[in-house]
Amino acid sequence: MPVIIDGTNGITYPNSTIQASAGQVLQVVNASYGTTVSNSTNVYADTGLTATITPKFNTSKILALITFGQVQKTSANANNDLSINLVRNGTEINQLTKETLLTGTATALNMALAFQYYDSPASTSALTYKCQFKNNDVNGAAVSVQGSSILSNITLMEIAA
Question: Concatenated DSSP letters for the chain?
Answer without folding.
Answer: ---EEETTTEEE-SSTT--PPTT-EEEEEEEEE-S-EEE-SSS-EEEEEEEEE--SSTT-EEEEEEEEEEEEE-SS-TT--EEEEEEETTEEEEEEEEEET--SSS--EEEEEEEEEEE-----S-EEEEEEEEES-TT---EEESGGG--EEEEEEEE--
